[in-house]
Design goal:
CATH superfamily: tt1808, chain A
Number of domains: 1
Organism: Thiothrix fructosivorans
Number of helices: 5
Distance between the termini: 45 Å
Pfam families: Uma2
Order of helices and strands: HEEHEEEEEEHHEEEEEH
Strand order of the largest sheet: 3-6-8-9-10-11
Number of strands: 13
Keywords: Endonuclease, Hydrolase, Nuclease, Plasmid
Largest sheet: 6 strands, mixed
Protein name: Uma2 family endonuclease
Radius of gyration: 17 Å
Helix content: 10-25%
CATH architecture: Alpha-Beta Complex
GO molecular function: endonuclease activity
């Protein structure tokens, strides 16, 4: 039998601690998990997306946020706060409270994979993100080699998968009406 944590944090306690913390932690049903630091390559890929999408969405009512923006997933059984590497929303942004640091309605989430988080980003984290009715596209980006994977929600709630392996490929993020060249994603990385 697995031992239960000695103390579970309420979401209010988590947010209060997290907003003052030096390091980021994710939250799942009262348990808090410290996040590992990111590599230079990881940070560069995230920055490349923020710059490219930000420029394309400049005249639209959209927000492009880096890994300091939390996303909340909440159902009857799941209460989670996570930090996507890049998150985009358009239109009426909904936040947890007046602090504006917990987004409730992301349209697009991008995760840069690392050896320590890849299985989680592909599995349980994606499962939790799929519970967000607003989420339309989920991208996974390798940092050590050229590979971008995209999951796009369809009208029937199924997810369609596509992948890109060539620097000349263009990733279309149709929810945002944006296009990003794979070469631009990996600029200064590969």
């Amino acid at each position: 039998m697995t031992a239960q944590p000695a103390y579970l944090l309420s979401e209010a306690e988590y947010l209060q601690r997290e907003r003052q913390a030096e390091f980021k932690s994710e939250y799942l049903n009262g348990e808090v998990y410290a996040m590992a630091g990111a590599s230079r390559e990881h940070n560069q890929i995230s920055t490349n997306f923020v710059v490219s999408l930000g420029a394309q969405l400049l005249e639209k009512p959209c927000g492009v946020y880096s890994s300091d923006m939390k996303v909340r997933t909440r159902t009857d059984k799941i209460n989670k706060f996570s930090y996507p590497d890049v998150v985009v929303t358009c239109g009426d942004e909904q936040f947890e409270d007046e602090s504006g640091d917990v987004l409730l309605n992301p349209l697009v989430i991008i995760e840069v994979l690392s050896a320590s988080t890849e299985a989680y980003d592909r599995g349980l984290k994606f499962f939790h993100y799929q519970l967000l009715p607003s989420l339309q596209e989920y991208l996974l980006v390798a940092q050590d080699y050229c590979r971008v994977e995209k999951y796009q929600r369809q009208a029937d709630k199924q997810w369609v998968y596509s992948e890109f392996h060539d620097m000349q490929d263009v990733v279309e993020i149709s929810t945002l009406q944006c296009r990003v060249r794979v070469a631009d994603i990996y600029r200064r990385v590969l």
